[in-house]
Amino acid sequence: MRNWSIPAGRIFGVEIRIHLTFLFLLVFVWLTDSASHRTVNPGRGLALVGIIFVSVLLHELGHALASMHGGVAAKSIILLPIGGVTLLDETQRPVEPGAVTWKRDIRIALAGPLVNLLIAFVAGSILLGVAPEIQLWAKPYVLSGNLPRSLFWANIWIALFNLLPAYPMDGGRVLRALFSRRMDLVRATRRAVTIGQAFATLFMLVGMLWNIWLTMIGFFLFIAAQLEERSAVFQSVLATVRLEDIMLTDFATLSPADTLEDALEKAVHSLQDDFPVIRGSDMVGVISKRKILEALRGDGNNYVQSAMNRIFEVAQKKESLASAFRKLTARNLSIIPVVEDQRLVGIVTLQNLMHSMALLAESRKLRKEALNP
Fold this sequence. Notes:
By secondary structure, the protein is an alpha/beta fold. It has 13 helices and nine strands. It has two domains: 5-240, no CATH class; 244-359, CBS-domain. α7 (212-240) crosses α12.
């Protein structure tokens, strides 16, 4: 999700990220102006992309606020030119009857297009009343040379395209919610993604013959569908895999009486970034390689107990990855000791958690392909 996006701050506690396809859109606008024999104005092209960006941002904030109202927190939003991907904290989704869940998902899906239609209605009413020379109904509808008219039509198109039954557009999310009444969420997502990618391919083919904008929209839609499918698989792994399946059982520990230089020597010969600190049979803290180095540079050689973090979470081996992920992110931790009968039996670090989830998702895919050749 993050590889092709850049952070742009937080709104209502939700991380906002901008997908690099907005840069492709800007280049596309400039090339379109040039091909149409219009004077290329980089500033107006940038302003048009800015209008689309703000419209998409408000669209996705509509989803985020609707999801929060429904009891599901939004974690982050990745903005794409045709809409965006709002990542919900599925690990904290309330356990409710299926009918409640799919109806809530439909309400969340429809919130975004309603925001754009509201923006278009307000903008159109103002323009028709105070600036009729804008020629709101004239073609081309979206044009860098007429930004007020573009504001109206950009929101109309964003709303209408997102209502198409092409996942991950909002109409496709409604379709997935309806599918989820009869199957698990991952299967419902994959079925909706297949339909969405068929729409994306159709847009690209028709766009080559009729309107190049459709080709660009199909391209963005195809990318967004892939992002959403990966997110669904990720959530499935979180919910169904237990810590005992992925925890590290061969790991190094430190004693609070070890010196920091001894700890650093042990860290040099270990692949671990984080270490449990054990006194006898009791765990008393955790410490990382970075913390060891910082303490050595700041205070010189001392004992591990002076630099270790005494605030940590523990987990049971039967807990799910979703539970571990919540504990890691709630306090910005990088390691969780796994215990059984108050005895340390393993550790889960953020590094091995992400690595293991990727491998588990791939192994499930290979197993499924083997069963359905």
